[in-house]
Amino acid sequence: MHLEHYSSRLEEAGVTFAPGLTDSEVKRAEDFHGFRFPPDLREFLMFALPTSKSWPNWRDVTNPEIELMLTWPYEGICFDIEHNGFWLEEWGPKPSTNVVAFAIAKKKIDEAPKLIPVCGHRYIPDDPSLADNPVFSVYQSDIIYYGADLGNYLENEFHYYFQTPEYFLKEPIRRIDLWSQLVEKNC
What we know:
The chain is α+β, with helices and mostly antiparallel strands and 187 residues long. The chain has helices at residues 3-12, 23-33, 39-47, 64-84, 98-111, 150-157, 159-162, 179-186; strands at residues 17-19, 48-50, 115-119, 122-125, 135-139, 142-147.
């Protein structure tokens, strides 16, 4: 990733930045929230930390907004279980009570790679711990790829400033347990 290129385009788009995270700040955020940033997101956040609205401030690990962002995927899936009849066939028969259904969904989500908020309801998985994981747009169980990798996501989200097509997914896209399955269900 050409970090200077991406940060300058984002600044043109109105994104504000603070100095990048230090190694100890990255470790603190990871330990506090129980995940590891994939290498490309780690590099980006250490280069310059986005501080505009909708971007998580990883320097302030106790910020309740981060916890809300981390629980958003689970909460949205539970909403769809309760209100829209959502259920994955692979999870077995749908329980007759929401309490049991929510517990099964929580177990399945906890077993899947953890989704790390990038901006708003866009997330990148922590596993595999490699560069080029896809970025997902997560809104309840309506989950799509919003970028084949972090750079492709930024180009899609801020396409006007990158002078790229409005929505273009590079190929190939790495498949991520559970989350890619939900994307495929929505196709």
